[in-house]
Structures are given as C-alpha cells and as structure tokens.
Amino acid sequence: MSSGEGKAAKGLITDFGMLADRAPKGMKVAVAGASDEVVLKAVRKAFDRGIVDGGLLAFTKEGSAEEAKALGLSGFDMITAGDDRSAADAAVEAVRNGRCGILMKGFVQTKDFMKAVLDKATGLRRSGVLSQVGIYQIEGIDRLILMADVGICIAPDLAQKAQIVAAAAAVARAFGNPCPKVAALSSVEVVNPSIPGSEDARELKGMAERGLLGKLVLDGPLALDNAVSPEAAAHKGISSEVAGDADILLAPDLNSGNMMAKAAVYFARAKAAGVVTGAQCPIVLTSRADSDETKFNSIAAAAFLGTRG
Questions:
Q1: Distance CA 142, CA 138 (A)
Q2: Which residue, among 212, 208, 186, 209, has the nearest Cα to 199 in the 3D structure?
Q3: CB atoms within 10 A of CB 212
Q4: Which residue has the higher pLDDT, 191 or 7?
Q5: How many whole angstroms separate alpha carbon 272 and alpha carbon 269?
Q6: Burial of 72 by CB count in 10 Å (0-12 exposed, 13-18 middle, 19+ buried)?
Q7: Cβ–Cβ < 8 Å for 49, 20
Q8: What is 131-266's CATH number?
Q9: According to CATH, what is the number of the domain 3-125+279-303?
Q10: Which residue, among 32, 150, 161, has the nearest Cα to 91 in the 3D structure?
Q11: Helix axis angle, 110-118 to 84-96, nearest 10°
Q12: Strand-pair partners of 54
C-alpha cells in the first residue's frame, strides 16, 4: 500500500473530489468582482454542493446582477460598485462585519484587491504574515501537494518562512493530515552559504526538531526531485521521513514558488486551488484567467479554514 493510500484510509483528503465531498457546508462568501461568468459558475458549483449558501456578490458592471440571478444565485446579496477597489472594499467589509466567512477575489485587479485586504483601518490583516498556499492534484502522485508561498511574500526571511510553514501545515491538518511532511526546498541538498535558501532550510529543520513549528516533520535543504520522488532520493542516498514523500513544498522565495506552481499546472496539467492564510478569514485568490474548476476547488479548500458568517 502506498503512503497516500494508507493515509486516505485514515481520513486524509487526497484529491479534489474528496475535498469537495467533505467540505464544510453552509458557508457565506463575499466575492469582490463578480461580474464574470467563470466566477459566477464557480460560486454556483459551490452553492449546488451546499458549500456556500449565500453571501455578497460585489459587481463592477451594470447588468451583472441579472446574470447572477439567471444562474440561480438570487439568494445572495448583490451590489454594483464603481470600480475594482470599491468592489473589494465592499467584500472586505462583509467579512469584517461578520456577514461572510470567506473572501474571494473575482474579476478584479490583484493590486486593488490586496490594497483593500491590507488597509490598516478597514482591512483584514492580522499581525502575522499573509501567504498563499497552492494546492495541487498531480497525476502520478497519490496525495495533494501543497506549495507555499506561491503568491504573496517576495523574499521571506527566516521568521516569515517559519510562519509560512506553520500556515501551510495548518491547511494540511484541516485536510486530515495530522503531521504533514514539509520539504524546505533549495537547488541543492547541502547547505551552501552562497545559496541563502539552503541556510534557511537548515535553520527551519532545527526549529521543527525543537517543536517550534507545531506538529510536523521538516527536512531541508532538499531539491525538488528529492522531495517528491522516492527514486531520486534513494539514488542520491538521501534518507529521511520527508525525502521522496513530502506533503508540503516550501519555496525559498516568491519567484521559485510561483514558477513551481505554474509549472505544475501548465506542464504537469495539475488540478489546482489557492488560498491565502494569515488574514482574519481565508481568502480565495486565483488568477482572473483560472478556470471555474480551479476557483471552485479554492472555495472548497477555503471552507475548511473559514467560519460561517
């Protein structure tokens, strides 16, 4: 029995079908920029599965409310804002006042959306680091692979990486993995002072061994092949609980994390989802070009981390 099959028998969610089936029901979602058919289809899928049963649709175009109603979303509150930032502000306020437990970026510019989220007076920021956890179902791998950070922190320092690891591990635990295996990635498997990410990986490993990162196992530095391929790890003589069987891939910086995530989707044809952690609620943050399937998967993932509005 593979490790993924063994975990699945104990309740681990190993694919997006299981994720949608087990997602908490009755959530409220606030959508910033719902004037888009793909966004509305994703919300409708979540509504049909009972994952969401209402919330706020903040549009940026006149006539969008009629489109939403035609899709069967008449039970949602609806407003038409003047621009992307106004739509984002309205959606953020719906979370702040307790009406919604999930925030979703629809068809709006990311910069306008994040400005609303990070606004010191009216946003959703907490004292810690915001990071984006990417979730991927990749053919040939018997478990969901989590990657972080794939969208927020440009060049995280050691303390920020520790928070990113803890946040990604919390997502993994929400999906039924009580002690996720984390690979702190680098381009090499040994510490090299010329490669800063490798030194951080060593420090994180020590922090994990001392129990400072919560219930998880972390190894690093590991190259990507050694983190996910048992054969590659064995060939290089790397033996650890994590090598070849990582659940979470910690990128050394945003460039590598974002490219790794996009390579999974566009080269490996992975199914994907994305959730931002560290704010007052889980945030569905996907590209405007992403499919309704990816957006739906992201809503389902966020439901495990949110509260009912």
A1: 8
A2: 186
A3: 11
A4: 191
A5: 9
A6: exposed
A7: yes
A8: 3.40.718.10
A9: 3.40.718.10
A10: 32
A11: 40
A12: 28
Tell me the per-residue pLDDT of 118-145, one tens digit each, with 9 for 90 and over.
999 999 999 899 999 999 999 999 999 9
The string of pLDDT tens digits covering residues 188-241 is: 999 999 998 999 999 999 999 999 999 999 999 999 999 999 999 999 999 999
The two three-digit tokens of residue 162, written as one number = 């520790």
Distant-in-sequence, close-in-space partners of 67: CB < 8 Å, separation ≥ 6: 37, 40
* Overall size of the chain counted in residues: 309
pLDDT bucket at 6, cuts 50 / 70 / 90: very low
> Residue 43 and residue 41: Cα distance in Å, rounded?
5
Tokens 């621009």 locate to: 83
Indicate the residue type of 189: E
Structure confidence at residue 11 (pLDDT): 87
Going across the sheet that includes 131-137, the strands are: 77-80, 52-59, 27-32, 102-105, 283-284, 271-277, 131-137, 145-148, 248-250, 181-185, 217-222
Q: How confident is the model at residue 10 (pLDDT cuts 50, 70, 90)?
A: low
For the CA atoms of the chain, what is the radius of gyration?
A: 19
The encoded tokens of residue 48 equal 């049909």
Task: Reply yes or no on whether the pLDDT at 162 is more than 50.
Answer: yes
For the chain, give every residue range classified as CATH 3.40.718.10: 3-125+279-303, 131-266
pLDDT at 273 over 70: yes
The reported pTM is: 0.93
Q: What is the distance between the alpha carbons of residues 208 and 217, in angstroms, rounded to a whole number?
A: 7
Q: What share of the chain is helix, strand, coil (3-state, %, to 5)?
A: 40, 20, 40
What is the Cα–Cα distance from 209 to 222, expressed in whole angstroms?
Answer: 16
Which pair of tokens denotes residue 284?
A: 């569905």
The structure tokens listed for 164 are 């990113």
Asked if 90 and 99 touch (Cβ cutoff 8 Å), the reply is no
